[in-house]
Amino acid sequence: QVQLVESGGGLVQAGGSLRLSCAASGRTFSNYAMGWFRQAPGKEREFLAAISRSNSNTYVADSVKGRFTISRVNAKNTVYLQMNSLKPEDTAVYFCAASPTSFYSVTVVESEYGSWGQGTQVTVFS
Predict the structure, then answer these.
(1) For residues 5 and 17, what is the distance between their CA atoms, to the nearest angstrom?
(2) Which end of the chain is more exposed for a tag (fewer CB within 10 A), N or C?
(3) Cα separation of 95 and 106, whole Å?
(4) CA nearest 47: which of 32, 33, 57, 62?
(5) pLDDT 10s per residue in the chain (126 long)?
(6) Integer Cα distance of 21 and 30 in angstroms
(7) Would you state the pLDDT for residue 27?
(8) By C-alpha distance, which of 126, 124, 113, 98 is closest to 40?
(9) Which of 71, 88, 91, 69 is nearest to 79 (CA)?
(10) Which residues contact 113 (CB under 8 A, 6 or more apart)?
(11) In this structure, are residues 122 and 91 in contact, taking their beta carbons and an 8 Å threshold?
């Protein structure tokens, strides 16, 4: 499995921005589609965005569409989540995950992600 480490979380005022990073190691990064999820206290983990191995296809959940953008740089073994116009309800632990899917595919299905990072806390205050 690939090892994943998230960074970039923190405390931000509502309306602000953060960029989360997820660094991969241990396996060939370009062999994995990547996804971002979050989990708020007392809630189930929620899919946010995914990007294909090819870097040509992305999918963003309706709940964050227009505010969050996913990208990846395979040469840096890193996937990013740019978060703009943050709201207090975006407060959660954010996780990246890797899925060994086909080259152009993205997946929103949590069970199709076999490797997960430890998460990074994002807190948005008003």
Answers:
(1) 20
(2) C
(3) 16
(4) 62
(5) 899 999 999 999 999 999 999 999 998 999 999 999 999 999 999 999 999 999 999 999 999 999 999 999 999 999 999 999 999 999 999 999 999 999 999 999 999 999 999 999 999 999
(6) 16
(7) 86
(8) 124
(9) 71
(10) 35, 97, 98, 99, 107
(11) yes
Neighbours of 7 (CB within 10 A): 13
Q: What is the pLDDT of residue 124?
A: 98
Q: Please give the full DSSP string across 35-85, using - where no structure is assigned.
A: EEEEE-TTS--EEEEEE-TTSS-EEE-TTTTTTEEEEEEGGGTEEEEEE-S
pLDDT at 81 (0 to 100): 98
Tokens standing for residue 109: 């299905």
CA dist., res. 96 & res. 45, Å (int): 12
Backbone φ and ψ for 55, nearest 5 degrees, come out as 70, 10
Rg of the Cα trace of the chain? 13
Q: How far is CA 10 from CA 6, 62, 101, in A?
A: 12, 24, 31
